[in-house]
Each structure stands twice: as C-alpha cells, then as structure tokens.
Amino acid sequence: MRKLACWILIVLLIPIVTLYAEDPFDPQGTRLRKLERGGANLLLGGMEMAHNLRQPDAGQFYPPWVVGLGKGFYYTGKRTLAGVYEVLTFPFPLPKDYLPVMEPEFAWEYPRADEIPPKPESAT
C-alpha cells in the first residue's frame, strides 16, 4: 500500500515540476543540443507523416493525402536518418557550430494546419 501511495505521489508531482522547468534543451550551438536534437529526431521522426498528411488541398486532380503519404514516408526516413547522423557525430562540430541538419530543428516545430498559408494560384 505504501509503495502504491509513493508511485501515485510521484506521478502527480512530475507534471507540476515540469511546469516550472525552463527550456528543456541545451542552448543552440552546443554538442549536447546536437545529441538531444538527434535523439528526438531519431525517436520522433514519424511525426513527419502526420505533418505531411494534413497539408491543405491545393485543388489538384488527386486527393492531397496521396501526396502527403508519399512525402510523409520520405521525410520520416530523412528526419530519422538525420537523427542517427546527429547522434553518431555529436562530439564533432559537423556542420559548423553544431547547426541543425534539417529545418525545422525538431519535427514538432512545424506550423499548425490552420497557420499554413494557401499556395498562390497560378495566373493563366
């Protein structure tokens, strides 16, 4: 019973403690930031699929999810491999000053679907 009460207390305190945490990542341009970024991109590269599937309809003949599925697989692999590269090379300043290999730096930094500006119509 005492063990269960301790676990419940820990589970309830963790969210409160994280509210007071500042930036969970190290400052930009450090090798630890590169390691953190690589680990996050390695583990969460699949978020690219969700981002690419929610692209707005640009009026093509085919539904937007078809293109989103293809782009999602491509960018998921690309971000995951970039994470592997950054984890393996974090002690070395490659690229210069430990800059990110991909933009945005993390998969969750994409704009929300309602913030994506529509593509301009081509004048014919």
Can you characterise this structure?
By secondary structure, this protein is mainly alpha-helical. It has a domain of 85 residues. The chain is 52% helix and 0% strand. The protein has four helices and no strands. Helix 3 runs antiparallel to helix 4. The protein is extended, with a radius of gyration of 20 Å. The relative contact order is 0.16.
Broad shape: extended
What is the number of helical segments per DSSP (H or I, 4+ residues)? 4
The count of DSSP E runs of length 2 or more, i.e. the number of strands, is 0
Report the span from N to C terminus.
Answer: 74 Å
Structural class: mainly alpha
Nearest-integer average pLDDT: 80
The low-pLDDT segments are: none
Please state roughly what percent of the residues sit in beta strands, choosing from under 5%, 5-15%, 15-25%, 25-35%, 35-45% or over 45%: under 5%
Helical residue percent band: 40-55%
Q: What does the main sheet amount to? A: none
Give the H and E element order.
Answer: HHHH
Radius of gyration: 20 Å
